């Protein structure tokens, strides 16, 4: 009799895959959010340099080190999972990774350094943007229920009961504090030429009704914010 080991190997692989998927299928983290995992480079100590408001309202901290040795800060409240924090940090690193051969992204060191200079902070907040979270600190807000994690039930089922805003809000952080936004209430950025093209595209889109159609109140809100 010939012993066909391949079918047993295939079956073992299937069992392992099921276990891995099952272990990641919950929106809640496997690890207690109150017990940061040092292997993920997440600390439960909020730097004193950020101030008492951050120390009182956030329980975990991580960062992205910029080419000049400074840091872009990420703080999180107690309901966020470590997996959500790591995903947000990875998205920020993705946006700041060089894109060789591109006009403005061939070397993004100046954008990352400018973000640190402008004290860019990503604030990961409990719940959702419904007015119930009264923490008021400087930073780009991103809420717990706007961050899906690969392997979670939300990610697998994609029922669209709530949106994933992580890429959008973190791009706001990079734009406002790194690329730069012209106009009032903004910080100087590293790529004014890029911002000029962005502004021209935005104005063209409004003029030619390419977006914002029937949303005059929303457009007024964005205009007042210079967003």
Q: What spatial form do the alpha-carbon principal axes imply? A: globular
Query: In terms of structural class, how would the helical and strand content be classed?
Result: alpha/beta
Count of DSSP H/I helices: 8
The amount of beta strand, in percent, is 5-15%
What composes the largest sheet? 4 strands, mixed
Helical residue percent band: 40-55%
Integer average pLDDT? 85
Describe it.
Mean pLDDT is 85; it is low at 1-31. The protein has a 4-stranded mixed beta sheet with strand order 1-2-3-4. It starts with a helix and ends with a helix. It is built from 8 helices and 4 strands, in the order H-H-E-E-H-H-E-E-H-H-H-H. It is globular. It has helices at 5-23, 52-57, 82-95, 109-117, 153-157, 166-179, 192-207, 216-225, and strands at residues 60-65, 71-76, 121-125, 140-143. With 227 residues, it is an alpha/beta fold. Helices cover 41% and strands 9% of the residues. The longest helix has 19 residues, at 5-23.
């Amino acid at each position: 009799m010939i012993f066909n080991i391949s079918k047993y190997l295939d079956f073992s692989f299937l069992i392992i895959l099921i276990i891995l998927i099952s272990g990641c299928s919950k929106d809640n983290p496997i690890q207690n959010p109150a017990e940061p995992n040092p292997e993920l480079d997440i600390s439960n100590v909020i730097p004193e340099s950020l101030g008492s408001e951050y120390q009182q309202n956030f329980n975990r901290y991580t960062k992205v080190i910029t080419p000049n040795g400074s840091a872009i800060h990420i703080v999180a409240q107690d309901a966020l999972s470590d997996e959500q924090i790591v995903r947000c940090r990875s998205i920020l690193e993705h946006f700041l990774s060089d894109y060789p051969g591109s006009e403005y992204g061939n070397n993004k060191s100046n954008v990352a350094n400018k973000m640190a200079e402008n004290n860019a902070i990503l604030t990961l907040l409990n719940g959702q943007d419904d007015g119930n979270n009264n923490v008021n600190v400087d930073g780009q807000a991103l809420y717990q229920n706007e961050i899906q994690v690969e392997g979670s039930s939300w990610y697998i089922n994609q029922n669209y009961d709530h949106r994933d805003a992580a890429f959008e809000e973190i791009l706001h952080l990079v734009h406002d504090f790194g690329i730069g936004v012209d106009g009032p209430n903004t910080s100087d950025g590293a790529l004014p030429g890029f911002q000029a093209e962005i502004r021209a595209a935005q104005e063209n889109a409004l003029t030619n009704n390419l977006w914002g159609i029937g949303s005059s109140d929303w457009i007024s809100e964005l205009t007042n914010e210079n967003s």
